[in-house]
Fold this sequence. Notes:
Elements: H1 6-24, H2 26-35, H3 49-57, H4 64-72, H5 91-111, E1 119-124, H6 129-139, E2 142-144, E3 154-157, E4 170-171, H7 177-180, H8 183-196, E5 207-210, H9 214-227, E6 235-239, E7 249-251, H10 257-265, E8 268-272, E9 279-280, E10 283-295, E11 300-304, E12 308-311, H11 327-330, H12 334-337, E13 354-356, H13 357-366, H14 371-400, E14 409-410, E15 412-420, E16 426-432, E17 440-446, E18 449-454, H15 456-473, H16 477-483, H17 498-501, H18 504-507, E19 551-555, H19 559-562, H20 567-580, H21 589-598, H22 608-624, H23 627-631
Helix pairs in contact: 1-5, 6-15, 14-20, 20-21, 21-22
Amino acid sequence: MLRGSPERELAASWEADAAAAAAAKSQAAEAEEQLGVDAGAAGEPERPAREEQPKAAGPAPVPARPRAAEEGDARPARRPPPAPPLIPPRPARTLCHLVKARSRGRGYRRGSGSLRPVTVDSSKARTSLDALKISLRQLRWKEFPFGRRLPCDIYWHGVSFHDNDILSGQVNKFPGMTEMVRKITLSRALRIMQNLFPEEYNFYPRSWILPDEFQLFVAQVRMVKDGDRSWKPTFIVKPDGGCQGDGIYLIKDPSDVRLTGTLQSRPAVVQEYICKPLLIDKLKFDIRLYVLLKSLDPLEIYIAKDGLSRFCTEPYQEPNSQNLHHVFMHLTNYSLNIHSGKFIHSDSASTGSKRTFSSILCKLSSKGVDIKKVWSDIISLVIKTVIALTPELKVFYQSDIPTGRPGPTCFQILGFDILLMKNLKPMLLEVNANPSMRIEHEYELSPGVFENIPSLVDEEVKVAVIRDTLRLMDPLKKKKEKHFPDICMDRKHRVPPVSDRMSSSKLKGSSLSVARSQHPENPFPGKEDPGCELTGDPDSNPEAHLPSICLKQVFPKYAKQFNYLRLVDRMANLFIRFLGIKGTMKLGPTGFRTFIRNCKLSSSSLSMAAVDILYIDITRRWNSVTLDQRDSGGELS
């Protein structure tokens, strides 16, 4: 026991109280001496009666009177209060027993009113399982890796909302999110906003949907080239359902033969290629930022303070006919560049082919770049993109979880892929509904033999995102704040070094044996993290061992600056009000009248009779539109 520790001070105070009680009852001490009072009256735990019985069973030279008095201790006789024995027990034993007895008593009293641990069903977590497990250990929450018959507080799904049938609690996926961030759907949603607010949504490259808009694509490219002979564009083709760089290629002209093959195989999006990106070490890179959509109604958005920067592995050159096929030069996808012979696995946050975004900002700041302006532009991009997605997301949500029916609440971590141009303007590349949360990478032990090795950079960023997302979604948060009014966030503990969790075979020949003590946030260099074990004072702040939350709220914090963009969102609210609650997707004449009235569109020039005629005309035009035109978003001309 350390000098000056709380346990030592507590035990000393108890001994002082016992001494005062002994002095006040000196007259009763002589009587108790004759009766043979045991040490348990002084605060030391009493020995079980079974230990005393064998002594009484056999013949002993001890007089019978003290033995009878000892047996009488168990009877509820009215006797003077017990006092400490004349021969005190050994000090070390007394202190130890006092502390243990006090701890047991405190735990018992707290048991009836203690806060239960948050329960998490991780049976569907899939690739994010390792990062989730570390997060749950740090939070000291209860994990159910194989599911649970009783409901859990939080369900962590790896793919979509429909991974499990859930009627309560919280789930980390929104219904319809996977469909909404597909390349075609995302392009349509952003195009609507570009038509309404062209200056506000100029962060997304001009896009065309294939095959529906192929002729439009050819015509517009030809028109621009005729007006500007010096314009030599490059286009990037992205399959709608592709991921991890699968099926992506560059073209210089719409007549490219590969584009013809794409038109016949699967839908895709073709975009203007950004030819002048910001380079670091002569390499092109993009940024993966993690965004938490905490709630749809009201809209709540958080952005992680740090992200990942993924680098190409070949020095960048502007696209030409010779390098157009060099994917390691033009595509930043980690899943592609990891197969390059020049890929460097990161052993620190500021080197290698994958680095933290904060290290990039530090590098830019050293060159005089206004980092606050860069962050402000990125936050604006994220908020505007989510605003473009929320109208249809609300319709999906209403369809899967109708008002008045049991269902879970939802939240989701999104992965925003952003490219900084040479002038530091951020451009949105795509949004991922299921960003990779793996915290290891493949390491080649010998030719053709690979093994998964923990990645310091991935773990540093992704574990913090998952852990702090759970903290924000904690269903017992209000109870904890009431139970611990002085709750605060500090930076006391971190997870154990990766080297502590790696086998010697994995560390052999690997540069990843760098101890976490080399990281600036590690407050316990060379020591194991006490936060990973469920020990400590049960009455202490349950979040005192955690670092500060890495997620920053950006909406509704900056709502006043962006609320004017939520025009389509208001229309979706009206749609849900008149259609979603009734469980139908068809607007009848009565609902159409109510729609016009509540939108305050009716006036002296637009009577209700004219509204009925307008409804009939719209219905006829819609019925004449083919199914293909409806699916492609054809307009009613």
